[in-house]
Amino acid sequence: MKPENKDVVIAGGSISGLLCARELSQNNHNITILEEHDKIGVPEKCDGLISVNALSSLGVIPNKKTIQNKITGARFFSPSGKLIDIDSSNLDIIVLDRKEFDNELSEIAIRNGAQLMKSTSFVKTNHNNSEIIVHSSQNQFHCKYFVDAMGISSLMKKQKFGILQAAKYIIEADWFESNKVDLYFNQQLSPGFFTWVIPINENLAKVGIAGYGINSFNNLDYF
Ligand SMILES: Cc1cc2nc3c(=O)[nH]c(=O)nc-3n(C[C@H](O)[C@H](O)[C@H](O)COP(=O)(O)OP(=O)(O)OC[C@H]3O[C@@H](n4cnc5c(N)ncnc54)[C@H](O)[C@@H]3O)c2cc1C
Prior knowledge:
- The protein is 21% helix and 38% strand.
- By secondary structure, the protein is of the alpha/beta class.
- It is globular and about 60 Å long.
- Residues 7-181 form the FAD-binding domain.
């Protein structure tokens, strides 16, 4: 297959890659995004807790259908069970459906003219004079710039240690507050991080854990 000429090739079709594509394509650069999965936002790697301010600083106003919940506070549980309850109602914190959100970003990037290649894995780059040659599972690209937006998978290739292990589930329960995030600190279960409960509504919550050197799914089940 003949190599394609591009201004920029972006590897990774999640928030970083898609925002980068949105910015570059609206300035008429010829962009291709490579995403190894066949669907954007799947598997979902984020629980979507974010402030509206953080999003607007990136020029993003989330569509109503991507907002799952509004958060008004957080409860911090210490290992001894001590509780600190804080109010964050003035901070405009929301819970996003990351799958929907990423899909929305991809639609904007495509509308601006970016090409999105799903089921296409980045393999490697090499250089030929001033050009970068990007090898993917589908095709080769000759481009001026290459953007690595492959998130943690890229970091793990460079850095074997110091990476948090994480796991998450959606649970159905009635023991959390529907607009408060709970954070549990316990150095045995989640060394260096914590366990979180992010409510979606009165009955559903995203529960996750992260920590150094843990079996994250085992520890989350134990929690
Ligand atoms: C369990 C968990 C919960 C989290 N919850 C929150 C939260 O509530 N709030 C918050 O702000 N942050 C949260 N985060 C962090 C957030 O998910 C990341 O900061 C964010 O997703 C990083 O975005 P990214 O685009 O840089 O990378 P990623 O989202 O990791 O995306 C990388 C993309 O690159 C693709 N890719 C990887 N390798 C290749 C390849 N070889 N070829 C092509 N494509 C490739 C992947 O499929 C993926 O689409 C959470 C993280 C985890 C693990």
